[in-house]
């Protein structure tokens, strides 16, 4: 063959038959025609045609001349390229061209012709495809391996193919390109960095997005050549990662993107690269570590990847660099979804990161867990969901919001929409309770978000009415007690805000005056406190008031919205119209509009209207009739009915007008006849709240209801009797007639020998006394003197009468509250009777025949009665200091339940601002309670009461004359005086007793001093100094008592000095001391003496008071009584009332309190009740 080639150099060119000479002397068209015939000839030849190969050798050499390779016509070049491709096929394995330069020119020429593949619609595309197919099948380019410039040829070929590939090419084109390029890599001795870059550049995200087909081609090539190309890829990454030689390639800056892409293509390409990445993780360069972590996160989190499990030491959750920890947390979501088997390991890491000091990381922990949970609840365990739950109380609003919204979306998906089945719904059933518990938070943002979640996720307002009420019905039946309270509070707050807006509308419509402007401003301030960021909201609410004044249409729409008769559909229309009217399309960001939306969102009745109440009543009826399967919803039918009536009862307070339909009232009538007492009680309360216009609007129902109410009042259970009386009082115009019809038979029928039947009559008579004291003035006074005191309270029978005695006490108190005056001195007598019960520990006869539970109940009833009377000014004035102190000591009662119930009653009266401020000091005695939960609860009561009073003073700036009775700081003198008279404080200088005094004072002062508003610390210090200049008004001549007073003052002063840095400043006001408790300060007397023993100094540790957390123990159930071991020195026993055989006496009480212990009870009663005349009334029978 070599000899033939030598001869061919001088031989004449032989053309195929019919083809004349091809030269520059013929036209282009003729040249194309002749070349096509040559192409056909070479196409038909095969490698075995030796004669033809010899014959056309010179033609083959002629076609490779510069004349053809550089010809200006593309058709000529294409035909020549096809001929050359066939020549390489025919003469293989030895090409007829021996010059390296010529071979380079030929292959560069062929490569340039391959660019014609780009236009798939070209008429010549098939020839271009034939060219590609030919050189790929023959592997023509492999001839170049021996050439010095082979890398240049291969690189140009690769670039050309990656450039021309597009979505118009079919699978065959793609396959031939891969075949052509893979043969070069697999059969060559080396892969240059330049050639490797030509392939890898198509994996870089920017190039990948520009030419997806080039990416797919590179991906297919790498998969085909994985084994051959892997060493060169490893060397490239080694140069860049380990040696830092970034100059070896222009792709060095994309090294991490390339690693990820290569891993996704074929993990075997990176067998030697992972150790290099591990080395990089130890770098001191934060950005470098971050890049590696981002890469590993994507590789580890990828589906079907085993790297995460195999390389757990590479997880960088605890890295010092915040962005790295953040990236790891983001990776956790993908890992949870793609590798559920790693959930346990991830839980441990996420637990730590959920408490990360960085807000963004805590936020992304929630996002990761919630994202996985929304994909499939099975992917997250209870521990992970608990992390989200914990973050609902995070200090940062952004984190709290994300946690709350995350839980809400999980609840809606798996509970509301039912995805995942009953098991999934059961697993996340706690979410609804937790979300509503957040309503206890002080932050208005939290409360608003809970309201939004309730309206959009828990009971979506856009559901059809019957479906919406069904959701609400079963939700209410499954909530825990604290969540129910929160939900009720939410409706109550929305209702109050609705009323405030209605008041603002009324004020705006009034003629302008200075008084009306002040009233508008005061109402604006109240509304502002119900919106986010009150500082900014104040200006916006002012602006809204001005808009309402100027724009009658908006005012009318808002009036419709806050109207009790507004329907849910009307509310939606009103909200839409108001926001549309206020909003401006030119202002994409409108803070004023956002504030208005917040306000409308809170006041719009999107859940409850007349139609909704009717649907809810029907749902209750279905449960009563048994036509719905409550069990399927996870609620026993009895509980569902009870909860449904309880829900209606709550709504009857906030939406009474919505109940005004015959169908609703008829259903409630049916509930009154049910055996379940709770159901009937709820129905009665609903009638009381909603039946104001029932007599005139629904006379048929009135005629049926009245006999039922009278029967309940006479013979129903006590609570039903109470509500029946209140129903009659609220609903009927001629109530006096109806009251008389009930009073007379009950009064005549009272029989002390039949105690079981006394409770209902006494309850009914007590509420009649409260509601109509003047109507039954004479018989009630006789009833109390003759029956209640002589026949009931003075007789000591068996424990069955205890409840009757309690009802007797309540009847006396209700009677006094109804009368509301002490002209006949009945109040003094009643107070003496109540304190006698407390003196005797509940056993008035002191014969030891009563069981301890009965004594406890009577002590509690007497103490609560005192609290009730103290809420009425005319009786508060006549309560002596001794009686007040005796009542206060009940909070340290030996019985746990007595302490608990008494503190709750005390708290309720204080929260309503009904009890005077001195009763707030009673909580100071709780510092000695041996049960931790009781102390925590008392502290929360103090916190809430202090906040309520401060908030009230902010809202009512004009009540300066009542400052003495409202300002929380004024509780300090009462607390000091109460502790001075504590029966446990006997020895003035006793260190242990002084330590208890110090703890009790700090129990109150810690909360009072938590905020130093208006220099209140100096005010408290001045108050204590002033007390030291007075004497105890209870016994001014008793030197020991006054020494106690000054000693307690010194304890208080030392606490203030140790806990405050501003106490020495000037007091903003001169404190006023209560004259009932302290004598007037003696200006000639300067009491600078320190009454504390020197050893007491070590008890006062410096430090700022801790801010009180209002939520602290609110949702935590109190421990059962008697479960904690107490020290012997404890003055309270945490015994249960179940042991009636234990000694009922209270040694502390009898040891320290003064009272007529040895006085026979009959003379005691005569002493207390001697002022009661016994009238001869025909209504009172003789015995």
Write a brief caption for the model.
This protein has 1183 residues and is an all-alpha fold.
Backbone shape: elongated
The helical percent reads 55-70%
The stretches of 5 or more residues where confidence is low (pLDDT under 50) are 1-10, 1107-1183
Total number of beta strands = 0
Q: Can you lay out the helices and strands and say which pair or pack?
A:
Elements: H1 2-8, H2 28-44, H3 50-55, H4 57-63, H5 66-69, H6 74-91, H7 100-113, H8 125-138, H9 150-164, H10 171-187, H11 193-200, H12 205-210, H13 212-224, H14 226-242, H15 255-265, H16 274-280, H17 286-301, H18 307-310, H19 322-338, H20 343-353, H21 359-375, H22 382-391, H23 397-416, H24 421-427, H25 430-437, H26 444-458, H27 465-478, H28 481-509, H29 514-528, H30 534-550, H31 552-562, H32 568-582, H33 591-603, H34 610-625, H35 637-654, H36 662-672, H37 677-690, H38 694-697, H39 699-715, H40 718-731, H41 735-748, H42 759-771, H43 777-793, H44 802-819, H45 826-839, H46 852-870, H47 873-876, H48 881-888, H49 896-911, H50 932-955, H51 963-966, H52 971-980, H53 991-1008, H54 1016-1027, H55 1039-1059, H56 1147-1152, H57 1161-1169
Helix pairs in contact: 2-6, 6-7, 6-8, 7-9, 8-10, 9-11, 9-13, 10-13, 14-16, 15-17, 17-19, 19-20, 19-21, 21-22, 21-23, 22-23, 23-24, 23-26, 25-28, 27-34, 27-35, 28-29, 28-30, 28-31, 28-35, 29-30, 30-33, 31-32, 34-35, 34-36, 35-37, 36-37, 36-39, 37-40, 39-40, 40-42, 41-42, 42-44, 43-44, 44-45, ...
Question: Can you give a write-up of this model?
Answer:
The protein has 1183 residues and is mainly α. It contains 57 helices and no strands. Helix 35 (637-654) packs parallel to helix 37 (677-690) and helix 54 (1016-1027) packs antiparallel against helix 55. Mean pLDDT is 81; it is low at 1-10 and 1107-1183.
């Amino acid at each position: 063959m070599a000899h033939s080639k030598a001869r061919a150099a001088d031989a004449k060119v032989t053309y195929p038959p019919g083809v004349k000479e091809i030269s520059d002397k013929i036209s282009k068209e003729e040249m194309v025609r002749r070349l096509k015939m040559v192409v056909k000839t070479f196409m038909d030849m095969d490698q075995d045609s030796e004669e033809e190969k010899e014959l056309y050798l010179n033609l083959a050499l002629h076609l490779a001349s510069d004349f053809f390779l550089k010809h200006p016509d593309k058709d000529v070049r294409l035909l020549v390229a096809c001929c050359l491709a066939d020549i390489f096929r025919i003469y293989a394995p030895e090409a007829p061209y021996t010059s390296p330069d010529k071979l380079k020119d030929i292959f560069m020429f062929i490569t340039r012709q391959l660019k014609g593949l780009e236009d798939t619609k070209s008429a010549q595309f098939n020839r271009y495809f034939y060219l590609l197919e030919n050189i790929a099948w023959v592997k023509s380019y492999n001839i170049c391996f021996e050439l010095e410039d082979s890398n240049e040829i291969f690189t140009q070929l690769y670039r050309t193919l990656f450039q021309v590939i597009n979505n118009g090419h079919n699978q065959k084109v793609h396959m031939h390109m891969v075949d052509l390029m893979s043969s070069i890599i697999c059969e060559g001795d080396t892969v240059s960095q330049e050639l490797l870059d030509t392939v890898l550049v198509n994996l870089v995200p920017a190039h990948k997005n520009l030419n997806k087909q080039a990416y797919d081609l590179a991906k297919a090539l790498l998969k085909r050549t994985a084994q051959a190309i892997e060493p060169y890829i490893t060397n490239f990454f080694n140069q860049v990662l380990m040696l830092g030689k970034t100059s070896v390639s222009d792709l060095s800056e994309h090294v991490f993107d390339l690693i990820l892409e290569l891993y996704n293509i074929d993990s075997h390409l990176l067998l030697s690269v992972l150790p290099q990445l591990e080395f990089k993780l130890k770098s001191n360069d934060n950005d470098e570590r971050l890049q590696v972590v981002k890469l590993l996160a994507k590789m580890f989190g990828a589906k079907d990847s085993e790297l995460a499990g195999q390389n757990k030491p590479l997880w960088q959750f605890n890295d010092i660099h915040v962005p790295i920890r953040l990236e790891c947390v983001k990776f956790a979501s993908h890992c949870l979804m793609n590798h559920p088997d790693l959930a346990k390991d991830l839980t441990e890491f996420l637990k730590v990161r959920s408490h990360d000091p960085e807000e963004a990381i805590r936020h992304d922990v929630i996002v990761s867990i919630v994202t996985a949970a929304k994909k499939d609840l099975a992917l997250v365990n209870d521990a992970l969901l608990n992390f989200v739950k914990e973050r609902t109380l995070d200090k940062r609003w952004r984190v709290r919001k994300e946690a709350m919204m995350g839980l809400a979306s999980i609840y809606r998906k798996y509970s509301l929409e039912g995805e995942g089945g009953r098991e999934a719904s059961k697993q996340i059933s706690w979410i609804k309770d937790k979300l509503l518990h957040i309503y206890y938070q002080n932050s208005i943002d939290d409360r608003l978000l809970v309201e939004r979640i309730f309206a959009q996720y828990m009971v979506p307002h856009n559901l059809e009415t019957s479906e919406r009420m069904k959701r609400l019905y079963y939700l209410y039946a499954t909530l825990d007690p604290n969540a129910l309270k929160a939900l009720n509070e939410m409706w109550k707050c929305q209702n109050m805000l609705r009323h405030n807006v209605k008041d603002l509308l009324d004020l705006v419509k009034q003629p302008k005056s200075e008084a009306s402007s002040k009233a508008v401003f005061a109402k604006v301030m109240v509304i502002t406190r119900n919106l986010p960021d009150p500082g900014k909201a104040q200006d916006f609410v002012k602006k809204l008031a001005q808009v309402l004044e100027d724009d009658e249409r908006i005012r009318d729409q808002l009036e419709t919205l806050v109207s009790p008769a507004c329907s849910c559909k009307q509310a939606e229309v009103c909200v839409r119209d108001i926001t549309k009217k206020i909003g401006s399309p030119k202002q994409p960001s409108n803070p004023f509009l956002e504030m208005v939306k917040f306000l409308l969102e809170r006041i719009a009745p999107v859940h409850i209207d007349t139609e909704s109440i009717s649907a809810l009543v029907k749902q209750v009826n279905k449960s009563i009739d048994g036509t719905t399967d409550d069990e399927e919803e996870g609620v026993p039918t009895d509980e569902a009915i009870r909860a449904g009536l309880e829900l209606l009862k709550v709504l009857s307070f906030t939406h009474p007008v919505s109940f005004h339909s015959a169908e609703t009232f008829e259903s409630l009538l049916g509930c009154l006849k049910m055996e379940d007492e709770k159901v009937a009680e709820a129905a009665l309360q609903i009638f009381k709240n909603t039946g104001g216009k029932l007599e005139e609007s629904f006379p048929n129902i009135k005629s049926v209801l009245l006999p039922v109410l009278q029967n309940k009042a006479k013979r129903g259970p006590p609570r039903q009797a109470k509500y029946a009386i209140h129903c009659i009082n609220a609903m009927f115009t001629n109530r006096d007639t109806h009251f008389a019809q009930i009073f007379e038979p009950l009064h005549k029928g009272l029989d002390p020998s039949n105690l079981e039947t006394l409770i209902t009559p006494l309850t009914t008579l007590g509420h009649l006394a409260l509601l109509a004291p003047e109507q039954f003035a004479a018989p009630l006074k006789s009833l109390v003197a003759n029956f209640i005191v002589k026949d009931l309270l003075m007789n000591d029978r068996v424990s069955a009468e205890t409840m009757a005695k309690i009802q007797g006490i309540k009847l006396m108190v209700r009677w006094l509250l109804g009368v509301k005056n002490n002209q006949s001195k009945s109040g003094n007598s009643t107070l003496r009777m109540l304190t006698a019960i407390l003196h005797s520990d509940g056993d008035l006869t002191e014969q030891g025949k009563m069981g301890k539970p009965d004594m406890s109940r009577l002590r509690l009833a007497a103490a609560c009665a005192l609290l009730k009377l103290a809420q009425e000014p005319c009786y508060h004035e006549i309560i002596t200091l001794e009686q007040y102190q005796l009542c206060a000591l009940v909070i340290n009662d030996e019985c746990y339940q007595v302490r608990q119930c008494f503190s709750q009653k005390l708290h309720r009266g204080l929260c309503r601002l009904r009890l005077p401020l001195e009763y707030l000091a009673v909580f100071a005695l709780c510092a000695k309670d041996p049960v931790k939960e009781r102390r925590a609860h008392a502290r929360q009561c103090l916190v809430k009461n202090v906040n309520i009073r401060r908030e009230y003073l902010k809202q009512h700036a004009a009540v300066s004359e009542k400052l003495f009775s409202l300002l929380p700081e004024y509780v300090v003198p009462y607390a000091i005086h109460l502790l001075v008279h504590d029966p446990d404080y006997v020895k003035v200088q006793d260190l242990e007793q002084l330590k208890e005094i110090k703890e009790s004072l700090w129990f109150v002062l810690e909360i009072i001093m938590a905020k130093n508003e208006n220099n209140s610390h100096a005010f408290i210090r001045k108050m204590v100094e002033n007390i030291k200049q007075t004497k105890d008004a209870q016994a001014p001549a008793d030197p020991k008592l006054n020494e106690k007073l000054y000693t307690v003052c010194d304890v208080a002063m030392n606490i203030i000095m140790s806990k405050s840095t501003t106490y020495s400043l000037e007091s903003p006001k001169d404190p006023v001391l209560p004259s009932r408790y302290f004598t007037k300060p003696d200006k000639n007397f300067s009491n600078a003496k320190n009454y504390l023993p020197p050893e007491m100094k070590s008890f006062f540790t410096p430090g700022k008071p801790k801010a009180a957390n209002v939520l602290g123990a609110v949702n935590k159930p109190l421990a059962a009584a008697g479960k904690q071991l107490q020290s012997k020195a404890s003055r309270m026993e945490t015994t249960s009332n179940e042991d009636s055989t234990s000694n009922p006496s209270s040694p502390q009480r009898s040891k320290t309190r003064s009272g007529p212990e040895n006085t026979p009870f009959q003379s005691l009663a005569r002493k207390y009740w001697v002022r009661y005349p016994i009238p001869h009334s025909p209504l009172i029978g003789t015995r």
